Amino acid sequence: MSDQNSYELLGLTEASTFEEIQEARDRLVGQYAEEPKQKAAVEAAYDAILMERLRLRQEGKIKVPDRIRFAENTPEPPPPAKATPSLSRPDWLNSLVDTPSRDDILWPAVVYGGLAVLGFAAPSLALAVAIGVAIYFLNRKENKFWRSVLLTIGGLAVGLALGLTVGQLLIPQGAQFAWASPDAVAAAVTCVSLWSVTSFLR
Description:
By secondary structure, this protein is mainly α. It has helices at residues 3-10, 18-31, 36-58, 66-69, 91-94, 102-119, 123-142, 145-170, 182-200. The longest helix is centred in the C-terminal third of the chain and has 26 residues, at 145-170.
């Protein structure tokens, strides 16, 4: 079988591309699936064309695209996009600030909410219990008792300073309300401060 007959059998010309040759071969093999002789003739024509193309390439009569000739010389991928630098915290702050779970926020919130309400009836008792609860919750996170005590003292100091100021502003000196006093407001604000410390610090 001559090369010319091979091209004619596949319905191609010598100018056909490799992709066109491949498509013609696949189409005809599918068409002659039930006819073994015709299918074999298509395969033989396909092989003859490939051999002819290989010979022409070796003789330099067919130009081979660089992407095929030098497949190992793949173009370098573009450099990755520079990531925007994230704001990093100092190490001492990372060791102090906690990223709490939902339960680590909710349970102390329930306890301190109850203590804040108790503070309107018995501010001193509410503060005493709140201090113990703060030490418990903080110590449970890291098992560092003295650190827990220091953080609790800090939260207590901030809470009392802020609470007494807010209490004096909300309830003027000498005014009496049946439901609140400056000390009760201070106890409630201190409970909020201690809740913040136990939830977000460690």
